[in-house]
């Protein structure tokens, strides 16, 4: 498949010299769509790691164009289930007992099937309803073979300079491989679930399934069964009378809390992993894919948000660079101009994200991201995917969601926690109102500096000052012209001294000298006038100070 893709691209590259640019663009998009379809079919036929690879890269809008992403997204829900006899054998070999000895009931039909495992509903002998997640038999061997194949493919792709400069293939693979290896250990997923239970212990609007460790191994995970429907099943939510606005607010709060406060988040919050119970409680499941955020990364994220608020393109670029969101060999000057143009579309001091999530604007944003030097670094791929997925779910629940109002308290909490215990905490509390007054002025100042630096600054003068400035310029221009005329007359007289009557040269030279001396005299007289005015002003000031001193006496 990889060799076929390479041949297709090589042949397309040869055609670009013989067809128009528009025709080349159309053929390129058609090739993307054709190859993505072929990849999807091959992944479904082979199974194993290639399905997971397609799911992984389908979330990276910075790496692949829309035609490929749309096709690969079909891999999210298009996985065939394994025959129950194989699942039964796997469960019994892992738990060391027959299914009938451990479970009172065990449904042969899976309630969910993924590339690495599938989930069955069951009932323990104690009467508890559970969900049993079983790893597909032989998946470890398939992943080992597929990993070697992918590494060979990466070495081949890196031979193309354009691809090598476009993305860091090694970093993408390392992150992907690490994530898959973690998903192969169901005991680690169980510990992740318990970490989230502790994280949400103070909330009553979210629930995480409890883990039955007696019936859990690295290949079989037995957990509490949680009733619920997918969060995007709007018809059922309305039938239950669930407040969708409140639900959207809760979902945003849950994930902002994970990202900004805990730095530990659910990295795969698609609708199948975010359920809603009849009373409106959110049930989070499947914790095989999680993400972590380092403290220094949170600091740069705050710096980026502040730069966007101030519409400071240079500050935003600095934060993006520190976060490693910019590709190599970026033309920073061009990117700065593009970013400044984007900031101009943000009106006022609030952010309305609807213009990038609705209708044609979403496609325009995707094209902008793909055309600009953005990349998702290895440690933020799943963060971007999670944020985009959650925001999409929330706007589906409530298109009028006040995102900024919901997120603001958590941002303030991050700032407070970072400064807590330091001498700056009191300064922040006392200077809160002062900061509100300073920021708009600072924003205008930075905007003016950016315009000055780019040559786009326009200054509007008062009419009186403008008239005075024009008069001054006219006088200076007149003096310069007169001096030039005088100099020309003097030089002409010198050159004509031996060629014409001396009297003519004498008169012409005297005239030029008089003109030049008169301009010097005018300049000296104006300097004397300014000096006299300054002296009078100083004497007036001294008399005022003296009278003021005497009055105090």
What keywords describe this structure?
553 residues, alpha+beta, 5-stranded antiparallel β-sheet, 4-stranded mixed β-sheet, 22 helices, 63% helix, elongated
Layout of helices and strands, plus pairs?
Blueprint: H1 2-15, H2 21-46, H3 49-57, H4 66-72, H5 84-95, H6 99-102, E1 103-106, E2 112-113, E3 117-124, E4 129-135, H7 139-157, H8 161-166, H9 169-183, H10 186-199, E5 206-207, E6 220-224, E7 229-230, H11 234-240, H12 244-262, E8 264-266, E9 274-276, E10 282-284, E11 290-292, H13 295-309, H14 313-322, H15 332-343, H16 359-371, H17 381-397, H18 403-419, H19 424-430, H20 432-454, H21 463-495, H22 502-552
Parallel strand pairs: 5-10
Antiparallel strand pairs: 1-3, 2-3, 3-4, 4-6, 7-9, 8-11, 9-10
Unreliable stretches (pLDDT < 50, length at least 5) are 348-359, 419-439
Number of strands: 11
Q: Given the structure, what is the number of helices?
A: 22
Broad shape: elongated
CA distance, first residue to last residue:
100 Å
How large is the share of residues in beta strands? 5-15%
Radius of gyration: 36 Å
Give helix % range.
55-70%
Biggest pleated sheet: 5 strands, antiparallel
Structural class, from helix and strand content? alpha+beta
What is the averaged pLDDT score? 75
């Amino acid at each position: 498949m990889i060799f076929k893709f390479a041949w297709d691209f090589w042949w397309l590259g040869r055609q670009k010299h013989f067809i128009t640019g528009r025709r080349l663009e159309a053929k390129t998009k058609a090739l993307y769509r054709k190859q993505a379809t072929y990849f999807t079919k091959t992944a479904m036929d082979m199974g194993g790691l290639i399905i997971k690879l397609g799911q992984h890269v389908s979330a990276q809008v910075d790496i692949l164009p829309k035609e490929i992403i749309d096709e690969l997204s079909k891999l999210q829900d298009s996985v065939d289930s394994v025959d129950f006899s194989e699942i039964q054998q796997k469960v019994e070999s892992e738990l060391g007992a027959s299914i009938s000895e451990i479970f009172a009931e065990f449904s042969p039909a899976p309630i969910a099937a993924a590339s690495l495992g599938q989930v069955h509903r069951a009932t323990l002998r104690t009467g508890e309803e559970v969900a049993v997640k079983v790893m597909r038999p032989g998946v470890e061997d398939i992943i080992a073979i597929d990993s070697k194949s992918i590494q060979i493919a990466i070495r081949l792709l890196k031979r193309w300079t354009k691809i090598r400069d476009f993305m860091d293939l090694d970093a993408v693979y390392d992150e992907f491989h690490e994530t898959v290896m973690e998903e192969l250990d169901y005991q680690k997923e169980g510990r992740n679930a318990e970490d989230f239970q502790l994280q949400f212990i103070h909330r009553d609007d979210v629930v995480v399934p409890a883990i039955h460790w007696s019936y859990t191994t690295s290949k079989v995970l037995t957990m509490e069964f949680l009733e619920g429907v997918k969060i995007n099943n709007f018809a059922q939510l309305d039938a239950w009378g669930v407040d969708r606005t409140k639900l959207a607010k809760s979902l945003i709060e849950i994930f902002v809390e994970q990202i900004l406060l805990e730095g530990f988040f659910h990295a795969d919050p698609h609708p199948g992993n975010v359920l809603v119970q009849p009373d409106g409680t959110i049930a989070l499941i499947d914790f095989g894919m999680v993400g972590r955020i380092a403290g220094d990364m949170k600091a740069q994220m705050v710096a980026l948000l502040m730069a966007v608020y101030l519409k400071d393109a240079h500050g935003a670029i600095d934060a993006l660079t520190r976060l490693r969101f910019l590709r190599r060999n970026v033309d920073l000057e061009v990117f700065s101009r593009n970013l400044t143009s984007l900031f101009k579309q943000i009106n006022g001091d609030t952010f309305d994200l609807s213009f990038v999530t609705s209708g044609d604007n979403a496609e325009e944003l995707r094209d902008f991201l793909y055309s600009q030097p953005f990349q998702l670094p290895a440690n933020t791929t799943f963060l971007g995917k999670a944020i985009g997925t959650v925001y999409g779910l929330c706007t589906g629940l409530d298109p009028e969601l006040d995102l900024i109002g919901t997120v603001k308290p958590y941002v303030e909490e991050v700032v407070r926690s970072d400064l807590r215990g330091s001498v700056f905490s009191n300064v922040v509390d006392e200077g809160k109102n002062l900061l509100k007054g300073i920021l708009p002025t600072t924003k205008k100042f930075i905007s003016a500096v950016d315009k000055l630096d780019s040559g786009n600054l326009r200054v509007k003068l008062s009419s009186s000052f403008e008239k005075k400035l024009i008069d001054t310029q006219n006088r200076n221009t007149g003096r310069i012209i007169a001096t030039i005329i005088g100099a020309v007359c003097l030089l002409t007289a010198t050159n004509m001294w031996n060629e014409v009557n001396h009297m003519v040269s004498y008169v012409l030279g005297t005239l030029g000298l008089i003109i030049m001396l008169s301009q010097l005299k005018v300049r000296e007289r104006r300097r004397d006038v300014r000096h006299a005015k300054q002296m009078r002003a100083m004497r007036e000031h001294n008399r005022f100070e003296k009278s003021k001193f005497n009055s105090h006496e």
